[in-house]
Design a protein that fits this description.
Order of helices and strands: HHHHHHHHH
Distance between the termini: 62 Å
Number of strands: 0
Radius of gyration: 20 Å
Largest sheet: none
Helix content: 55-70%
Length: about 210
């Protein structure tokens, strides 16, 4: 008895990798347009489709190009956090893009030529919240981006020194900023640091000890 075999015509790529990168940058940037808030679900579907469009061999380099391009288009304010938040996928590619975008935004914020995670972490954690001139709004943006950088992907989960340094800084922010500190965004930094610290304690690097069982 003969069996039927279905054949599927060879699919051709609609976009070249560079064209797909440009479209991905445009789609992510559209999340900032308040007039398109009613289309966020559609934009999210487009975003996920584009992320899946690249070949495995293309994705890492294309992701870096996309992250660098977007980071040059947006200021270090709440809009950059909005762009990071729009990448909501839970697959490895989406998490990697979210982490890389946070990395490039922080790199530009600190005027670094190379996106060195250790140097960025040192720049963030060297901020003294007790200083009178501390810019808590910028600090708020920095800690949200730093947390996305470290925990969106699995790249740093086993880097004990990095994760411990980050936890200590979050702990200092949550305890050294008083409840009666009325400086602009001080309370938001304290509350966000406390919230992120709880999440960071659950993401303990391997070999750093375990959370006691209840």
């Amino acid at each position: 008895m003969k069996t039927c075999r279905c054949t599927v015509p060879k699919m051709h790529a609609v976009f070249s990798p560079s064209e797909a990168e440009d479209v991905l940058v445009i789609v992510i940037s559209l999340f900032l347009d308040r007039r398109l808030e009613g289309l966020l679900l559609i934009l999210g579907d487009c975003l996920n489709s584009l992320i899946s469009y690249f070949n495995t061999s293309e994705w890492e380099s294309s992701c870096l190009i996309v992250a660098e391009s977007i980071s040059k288009r947006v200021k270090m304010d709440l809009n950059c956090l909005r762009l990071v938040d729009c990448i909501t996928g839970t697959n490895d590619r989406s998490k990697f893009l979210r982490s890389q975008l946070a990395l490039q935004l922080l790199k530009n914020s600190f005027c670094l030529k190379v996106a060195n995670v250790e140097r960025i972490l040192k720049s963030v954690t060297s901020i003294n919240v007790k200083e009178k001139e501390c810019n808590f709004f910028v600090l708020y943006v920095h800690i949200v981006l730093m947390d996305n950088l470290l925990f969106s992907s699995d790249a740093f989960r086993n880097k004990t020194a990095i994760i411990d340094a980050w936890r200590n800084f979050l702990r200092n922010c949550s305890t050294h900023i008083g409840c009666t500190d009325w400086r602009f965004y001080a309370s938001k930094v304290r509350n966000k640091a406390s919230y992120l610290l709880q999440g960071a304690m659950l993401k303990r690097p391997a070999g750093s000890g375990s959370i006691p069982a209840k």
